[in-house]
Amino acid sequence: MTDRPKNVLLIVVDQWRGDHLGRLGAAWAKTPRLDALATRGVTFARNFCQGAPCGPARTSLQTGKYVMNHRVVHNGVPLDSRHDHLARMLRRAGYDPALVGYSTTTPDPRGLAPNDQRFRTNGDIADSWRVITQMDEARTRTDVARNYVGWVASRAPHHAGRDADALWAPQSGARRPDGTACVVERDLSDSAWLTEAALEYLRGRPGDMPWMLHFGLYRPHPPFNAPAPFHASTPLEAIPPPVRAARRAEEAGGHPYLQHLYGSQDLGSYMSGGKGSVADLTDAELRHLRQAYCGLIEEADLQIGRVLDAVEAQGRMQDTLIVFTSDHGEQLGDHYLLGKLGFHDASYHVPLIIVDPSSAADATRGRIVRGMTESVDILPTILEWIGQPVPHTCDGRSLLPQIRGGADCTRDTVHFEFSLRGGFFAPSQRILGLDWRSCDLAVLRSDSHKYVHFQALPPVLFDLRADPGEIVDRSRDPAYREVMLDMAQRMLSWRMHHAERELVNLSASTDGLVAVA
Known about the structure:
By secondary structure, the protein is α/β, with parallel strands linked by helices. It has helices at about 30-40, 55-65, 65-70, 85-90, 150-155, 165, 190-205, 255-265, 285-315, 380-385, 400-405, 480-495; strands spanning about 5-15, 40-50, 100, 130-135, 210-215, 320-325, 350, 350-355, 365-375, 415-420, 440-445, 450-455, 460-465, 505, 515.
């Protein structure tokens, strides 16, 4: 392999929960291709992203930095141009990093015109990527020149004039989940469209030139309607019920943020044509919605398999690092919620499979690592694999030593953040009267406890050993006073240790500028 170019295939899906992999025991999740991929590499069973929704999560993945450092706290918040990221680093290393999908990056507005069209999209593409096919995350997606809607219309005249909402609406026209397939056919789904673009890119790669492909799929992101036959492939009785208290008022002691969500989440954000409150979904409706989610996962798994087959057919598996992950998770009815938000694990626990083709990783093939890891670990892992230095500003750590049978790279705690402010679709929205300076929350999660710190709302503490479902808030329980103090101190130490350090490792001296070891 040393005489061959080192390629990187980074597969990033959207909104895929970390517990929805057959390899990890989820019998209801049909993921045969990813399960097979996992036998060739290492599966990190408890990997957590660093933020939600897409913008914060993908920025942490691409920069290797926590949200508190890159400060893209929501979709639509610009990424300061001084923050280095994966595409720039790879380009400096001699790669021409290609992207199929999206990176949800709003550019730094300094030096740009206020009417720049990139400020009218729900996250554009970060600089230095070579865009092969771009997925527009806005629900209308009507830019037919480069867009999914135009691709469908060119192949299926009977869909001409339909926007993405119409294509992904249920055939029944129902306003609530009813188990119906969506209008668009499986061969015309956006997963099929993005996969075709990735295959076209791979077919054109010269054998002696290293390549890096970011292959992104939009699914299983909402709308939660799946094409036939995937929509009903998973039997309803095989799908586990949501994790939640018997009554909404019992969730986390009736925390005001959760109560706000129960009164404001609308089904129209998660189902084309949907109407009504998310919190009022019946058990039957929720099971149909979860069935559609499983169908979207099954279809995505099939499309990912096509890309893996193409790499295999070209004889490139032995010199290609493969990383599969998701930007963030999905509540899927847990705690009476949908989407990616708040502080529960369902929104932040994401899959991670890494396949290192080198013989140094032979001893760990098929291994499942149960220790905790973070999405910021992906960037340093890629950099180390291609032989590039990891920036001192990176908050993650390379997982390559563990993949190659060496030191344990897992963590005692993981961290993630969320902002209650509005994003791209409602940037001026104020939740519970909080302004944009005071609406962040930060989470410290260990094996035993989870501590949630709000700037201006009551904290939350879960005892994960006694309450793995995260239902009972212990923050005001006198018996947990010492635990609260310990977790708060550990969070403060974490923030101090990982605070912005772009230049702090440098110092003027009698010998001139020196780097501190």
